[in-house]
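quick q for whoever's on today - can somebody do inverse folding on this one?? i tried earlier but teh output was garbage lol. tokens:
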């Protein structure tokens, strides 16, 4: 299968699954807002920056490193080495994730009170900490299959995670209500853990089954010479350390942004309850609605990273230029179409889906970021696929700094609308910077090739 068809097939599978999981997630968010209230949803959303930061420390960079190294080994036909990269990734992420779980439980009160500014988040942090080891296993196996361009397992595991999360929360809520017990938003945190447990167990089962059938027996991999394992560890660490450092710094900035929004809304004049409700509507209702079509672009982005890595290894600048051009125009066109759709029907969607006029107003304002948001994810994936993680980090940082500036300077003056327009400015800036960098990169490669011909 050639490069183009591999990307299309993988993106198609991930897109179908992405739409399915987001469709389920849509009704799940409606269920949460109606069952627990906007303020409780705001509390639940407030813990995700901490979870994302901890995940970045333990897993995110290693998942990408596994995908990139497995893709390189697969292109050379070395299945044995690809499996070694997976085992090295599992070792390097599972142990730190267990340590992180214990630290989150021990410091939950401190994190909730002094970092999040909301002591009520402490029990939620303790619950979601149990998801960390399972998330490590799940992410590494998904990275392995993405590197092989086999998206069926990552896609199904994503669907398993979402179904397990939603069903566990729904049945627990029914159980509590039938017995007249108090059912708080902590049930949603339990659902997150259940989702990671089931998805990791499914991923492990699928890998073991495929390894027995089509790959290698354990005895063919585990007794390798120490040099093979050192090479595997070195390959994962060399790729993952800069990625992990970048992800951690980005998540620190994102956490600062998320935590500061309710605080700055209070400076503008809202109460603690109202500020959490606004935050909950924005992050738990309006943004998921805007992000729903990005299931397509996220799938393309996932497939682009290993594909671009292989194109770069083959040295074909013509293929690279063709892939970037086609992906850019498709994603930008999708963003424009969604922008017009949200402008026309955003208010109706907010009131019909979430019974919230505020959600509809947010959706209309956020509609303008769609062309940039959907395209940026693919452009950044191309840059990561080229091995330029530091450039990707700098571009993301530039966008985040603009968003944080809007939180600190625009929200106190004009409320949440100041932040929404800050989002538009930041996405537009990242869009222009990505295009400039890729244009300069391709131009420099062409110049080198022309010199070589002469």
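ok took a stab at it. sequence:
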């Amino acid at each position: 299968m050639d490069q183009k068809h591999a990307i299309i097939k993988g993106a198609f599978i991930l897109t179908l699954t992405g739409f399915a999981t987001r469709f389920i997630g849509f009704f799940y968010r409606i269920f949460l807002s109606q069952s627990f209230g906007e303020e409780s949803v705001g509390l639940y959303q407030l813990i995700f920056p901490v979870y994302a930061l901890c995940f970045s420390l333990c897993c995110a960079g290693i998942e990408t490193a596994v995908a990139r190294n497995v893709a390189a080994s697969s292109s050379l036909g070395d299945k044995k080495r690809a499996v070694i990269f997976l085992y090295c990734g599992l070792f390097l992420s599972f142990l730190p994730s267990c340590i992180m779980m214990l630290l989150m439980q021990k410091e939950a009160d401190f994190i909730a009170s002094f970092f999040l500014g909301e002591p009520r988040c402490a029990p939620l942090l303790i619950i979601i900490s149990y998801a960390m080891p399972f998330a490590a296993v799940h992410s590494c196996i998904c990275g392995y299959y993405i590197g092989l361009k086999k998206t069926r397992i990552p896609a199904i595991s994503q669907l398993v995670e979402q179904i397990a999360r939603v069903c566990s929360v729904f049945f627990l809520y029914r159980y509590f209500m039938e017995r007249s017990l108090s059912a708080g938003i902590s049930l949603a945190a339990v659902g997150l853990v259940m989702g990671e447990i089931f998805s990791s167990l499914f991923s492990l089962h699928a890998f073991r089954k495929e390894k027995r059938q089509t790959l290698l027996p354990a005895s063919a991999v585990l007794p390798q010479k120490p040099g093979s394992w050192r090479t595997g560890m070195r390959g994962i660490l060399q790729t993952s350390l800069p990625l992990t450092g970048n992800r951690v710094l980005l998540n620190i900035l994102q956490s600062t942004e998320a935590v500061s929004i309710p605080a700055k809304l209070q400076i503008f004049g809202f109460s603690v309850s109202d500020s959490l409700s606004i935050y909950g509507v924005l992050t738990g209702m309006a943004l998921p609605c805007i992000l729903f079509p990005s299931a397509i672009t996220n799938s393309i982005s996932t497939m682009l990273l290993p594909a671009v890595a292989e194109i770069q290894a083959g040295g074909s600048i013509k293929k690279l230029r063709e892939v970037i051009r086609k992906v850019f125009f498709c994603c930008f066109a999708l963003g424009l179409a969604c922008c017009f759709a949200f402008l026309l029907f955003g208010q109706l969607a907010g009131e019909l889906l979430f019974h919230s006029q505020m959600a509809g107003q947010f959706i209309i304002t956020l509609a303008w970021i769609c062309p940039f948001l959907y395209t940026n994810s693919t452009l950044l994936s191309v840059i990561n696929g080229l091995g330029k993680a530091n450039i990707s980090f700098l571009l993301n940082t530039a966008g985040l700094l603009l968003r944080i500036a809007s939180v600190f300077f625009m929200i106190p003056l004009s409320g949440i609308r100041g932040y929404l327009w800050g989002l538009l400015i930041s996405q537009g800036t990242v869009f222009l910077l990505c295009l400039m960098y890729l244009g300069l990169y391709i131009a420099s490669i062409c110049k080198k090739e022309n010199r070589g011909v002469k």
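fwiw The two ends are 35 Å apart (CA to CA). also The chain has a mean pLDDT of 83. so keep that in mind when u check it
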